[in-house]
Design brief:
It is globular and about 40 Å long. The protein is of the alpha+beta class and about 200 residues long. The longest helix is centred in the middle third of the chain and has 18 residues. Helix content is about 40%, strand content about 15%.
């Protein structure tokens, strides 16, 4: 329900307009100086914090991953998200191939459960596809990778989860500057950093 409300409000104003209501722990990307009031999903008035293309990385960052196999999967996924954000179709296709390989390798590690196998399957479905098709399949893949990363906290790679209400979809990224893989240059900074614990 909360996601639908946020999505509906962003459809009304978009990422380039006035900020839309969000969760109390969200940072609204873009917009003005800060301190504006918005409604959260429960209809309560909250103060929103606005940032100009830098995010609040320290607030939402987590360390990944304690397992080398999980580190390889998450690293391959982040490379894919970065190539999509750059609108680089050939590099995105190669990154999908890299993700398939990393996830298939990780799927033989019993300590990681079944999630790497699900990631490998979802990524295989995106192989040799155009950039629009890869982006269309990204959210399901992203949620599995984010949950894997969350389950494997520890390690030295600092990541944050982000959400685009326009797609709608989640992704993992390095750094606080929003780089939206769903839209690339069309809406590169549309999105919010989010609490990784809330991604399902």
């Amino acid at each position: 329900m909360r996601r639908a409300l946020i999505f509906a409000l962003f459809l009304t104003v978009g990422c380039g307009g006035e900020p839309a209501p969000a969760r109390k722990d969200m940072v609204i990307q873009g917009g003005g100086g800060g301190g504006e009031k918005a409604l959260d999903a429960a209809g309560q008035q909250v103060e929103t914090k606005h940032v100009e293309n830098t995010g609040d990385f320290d607030k939402f960052a987590f360390d990944c991953c304690k397992s080398p196999a999980a580190t390889a999967v998450v690293g391959a996924y982040v490379a894919l998200a970065e190539k999509l954000a750059a609108d680089d179709e050939p590099a995105s296709q190669l990154a999908v191939d890299g993700l398939v390989k990393a996830a298939e390798t990780a799927s033989i590690d019993p300590s990681l459960g079944e999630r790497p196998g699900a990631i490998a399957k979802a990524a295989r479905d995106l192989q040799a596809k155009d950039i629009a098709t890869i982006r269309a399949g990204l959210d399901t893949l992203s949620v599995d990778v984010i949950v894997l990363a969350r389950e494997q906290t520890g390690g030295s790679q600092k990541l944050s989860s982000a959400f685009c209400p326009m797609a709608p979809g989640h992704w993992l990224q390095r750094g606080g500057a929003i780089r939206n893989p769903y839209y690339g240059a069309e809406m590169l900074t549309c999105g919010t950093l989010e609490n990784v614990a809330e991604v399902e």
